[in-house]
Amino acid sequence: MATLADSFLADLEELSDNEADVNEEEGGVDATNMEEDIDGDIEDIEALNYDDLDNVSKLQKSQRFTDIMQKVEAALQNGSDISNHGMVLEDDPEYQLIVDCNVLSVDIENEIVIIHNFIRDKYRLKFPELESLVHHPIDYARVVKKIGNEMDLTLVDLEGLLPSAIIMVVSVTASTTSGKPLPEDVLQKTIDACDRALALDAAKKKVLDFVESRMSYIAPNLSAIVGSAVAAKLMGTAGGLSALAKMPACNVQLLGAKKKNLAGFSTATSQFRVGYLEQTEIFQSTPPPLRMRACRLLAAKSTLAARVDSTRGDPSGTAGRSFREEIHKKIEKWQEPPPAKQPKPLPVPDSEPKKKRGGRRLRKMKERYAVTDMRKLANRMLFGVPEESSLGDGLGEGYGMLGQAGSGKLRVSVGQSKLAAKVAKRFKEKSYGSSGATSGLTSSLAFTPVQGIELSNPQAHAHQLGGGTQSTYFSETGTFSKIKKT
Amino acid sequence: MSYLLTTLTKKKEIDTIIRDTIDKVLVLRFGRAMDALCLQLDDILAKSSRDVSKFADVALVDIDSEDVQVYVKYFDITLIPSTVFFFNAHHMKMDSGTADHTKWVGAFHRKQDFIDVVEVCYLLFLSNPLNWIMPSIQIVDPGSVDIIMVA
Predict the structure, then answer these.
(1) Does residue A400 have a pLDDT over 80?
(2) Where is the segment annotated Disordered (chain A) (predicted)?
C-alpha cells in the first residue's frame, strides 16, 4: 500500500497539493473517513484531470468497509439470533453493527455518485448523450460496461438492462452521436470504475438485506406499519433510525421517490410524490383515488412509529400495530358512501321573507317587460278629443294619444332603450358599414321630403315598425312579439 | 301506507291531539283502512305529511271504532273519506263547491292540491289574529284545486 501510495504521490505532485488523502488509506477511524469523503468531494472537481479511480473513490479499500462487510456476511450466515432484550440496546453489538450499516449504506451511496461522475466524465468523449438518457448511476454503469468501445449499437444487446423504450432511444441517439471511440487505457479505467460501482451496489444490497432481517428487532413499530423491507429501505436512505425520526413526515413520504420522467413520456400517469412507501402493502391495497391521502396518512404514522422506535419506547411493537389498525379504519371510513339525502319538509308559509335582488342585471331584465312609450301614449287620452281605434268608429283597440297632436305620424319612434342600444348598433353597422358591397356612389345621407337632408335613414325605421309584408319572425332587431303571463 | 300516520281510535286521543296541536293545522281523516278511496287519500296524506310537517299535523281516525262515534255524529260524517281541518282547536270551514262546508269529502288528485289547501289554511288563520272569526276557503274545482281565498 505504501509503495503504491508513493508512486501515486509522484504523479499527483504537479496537479494537487492535497497530500493528506494518500496517507489516509489506512484509515479505520470514523473521523478520517469523514475527511476522506470531503476530500473526495474536493478532488472530484479536479477528478477530470485524474486518470485514476483510486484517488477518487476510496471507500472500498478502507478498513472500515471491509470490517463491516465481514461482520454482515457472518451475521447473515448465522441467521437471526434472538438477542437478549435484557441488555441495554446501545451496548448490544448487533445494534451497533446495524447503526454502522446505516451509516455505511449512505456512504456507499455517496461513493456510487462519485464513481458515476468519474465514469460519466470519461465516457463523455465516446457517448455524451447517454448521461441524459440513463439517469440511474448503476444502470449507467451497466450500460457503459456493455457498450464498451462499440460504435455500432445494433451489435450491443441492452436487453434486460433498461426498459425497451429507453433502449430504442439510446440506439437511435447512438447512431447520431458525436462521440469518438476511447483510447484503450481510458476504456480500461472506465470499465474498472463500472466494476467498482457494481461491486459497491452489491455490497449495499447485502447490507440492506441484513438490516431488513434485523428490522423487527431494531424498529418493531415501524416494521409493523410498513413492513420490514420498506422500513429497512427508509432507514437506509435516511441514514439511521434517529435521522429518520428527526425528519418531518412530508420528507419521509418522499424518501426514495424517483426523479423526473424521461423526455417524451407523458407525465399524466406519473405517480407523483410517493417514495418507498409506494411498496407497502397498505398503499397497494387502497383504491387509486384514495392513494394520495393514504400515502400522507402512512407517512405521518410511520414517522410517529419511527420516533417511538428511536427512543425504544415500545419494544414489543404494540404501538405500531395500533397505528396500523387506525390506518385501516380510516381508509375504510373514506370508502363509505355518503349518508342518504333526506327530503326537506316545506318551509312554513310566509315565514321567510322573499329575497329581493337588485342591480344592473335585474334592471336590464325588467326592461324587456316594461311598458313602452308607445303603449303609454296609447293608454292615455286627451280631454275632449276622441281617440282613433283600429277598426274605426270606436270599435277595436283604441289608440289613445297615438297619432294625435298633429304630428302626422301614427307610428311613434321606438325609444332608445338601453337594451336595444346594442341591437341598434349592430343593425346600424350592418346597413352603413357594408364593406365594398355597395357601389361607390352611395352615401349615408338620405333626402327626405319633410326634413330635407337627414343622416339616419327614416325609411329604415319605418321598416322596423313594420310593414305587414315583411316578416319580423326572423328579424335580428325584433324582440318578443307576445308576452303573456301564464 | 297508514303506518306512517297515527291512527286514532279513542275519543280521548282525538281530544288530546286537537288540544295539543298549537299553531299548526291539524288534518283529521275519517275513514276506513279497507276502503279504496280512503286508501288513495291516505297515500296522498302520507306522502305529504313530511313536507307539511313544519306547519301541519296529519292523523287518521277510524270510524269503525266505538269510541269515536260521538265525533262521527258531531261532524255528521256519512261519506268516507272525510277530512276535517282544525287550527288551534278551531274547526275550519271551507267551501268546496258542495253544500257541506264543514269537511272535505273524498280524495285529492295530487299531492300538490293537498299541500295547497293546508298552506292556505295556515296563511289565512295566521293572518287573522282573532281566531274566533272563522275564515273560509273556497275551493272552486274539487278535481284540481285552484284556490280562491275568501276572507
Answers:
(1) yes
(2) 331-362
- CB–CB of B53 and A350 under 8 A? no
3-state secondary structure B69-125: HHHHHHHCCCCCCEEEEEECCEEEEEECCCCCCCCEECCCCCHHHHHHHHHHHHHHH
Q: What CATH number matches the domain at A50-78+89-216, 1.10.287.4070, 2.40.50.100, 3.40.50.300, 3.40.50.720?
A: 1.10.287.4070
Lowest mean pLDDT among A223-232, A448-457, B96-105: A448-457
Cα–Cα distance, A129 to A485 (Å, whole number): 77
Give the pLDDT confidence score for residue A32 in this predicted structure.
38
ipTM: 0.75
Preferred mutation among A342, A346, A351 to probe B, highest tally of B CBs within 10 A: A346
DSSP annotation of A53 reads: G
CB-nearest partner of A349 from B50, B53, B122: B122
Homologous superfamily of A218-263+270-336 in CATH? Nop domain (1.10.246.90)
| Report for A18-32, A104-118, A421-435, B122-136: range of highest mean pLDDT | A104-118
| Chain-chain contact of B119 with A349 (C-beta, under 8 angstroms) | yes
Beta-bridge mates of residue B31: B62
* Residue B15: CATH number of its domain: 3.40.30.10
Which value, to the nearest 10 degrees, does the dihedral of the CA atoms of residues A355, A358, A362, A364 take? 170
Using a CB–CB cut-off of 8 Å, the residues of A that contact B are 343, 345-350
**Which of A21-35, A250-264, B137-151 shows the lowest mean pLDDT across its residues?**
A21-35
A361 to A356, A358, A371, A432: CA distances (angstroms): 13, 8, 18, 30
Is it the case that residue A190 has pLDDT exceeding 80?
Answer: yes
The pLDDT tens digits for A345-391 are 888 887 778 888 999 999 999 988 999 888 888 888 888 888 888 88
CA distance A358 to chain B (A): 28
- Whether residue B123 and residue A343 make contact (CB cut-off 8 A), yes or no, is no
Q: What local confidence, expressed as pLDDT, does residue A321 receive?
A: 93
**Residue B52 is nearest to which of A343, A345, A350, comparing CB atoms?**
A345
pTM across the whole model: 0.49
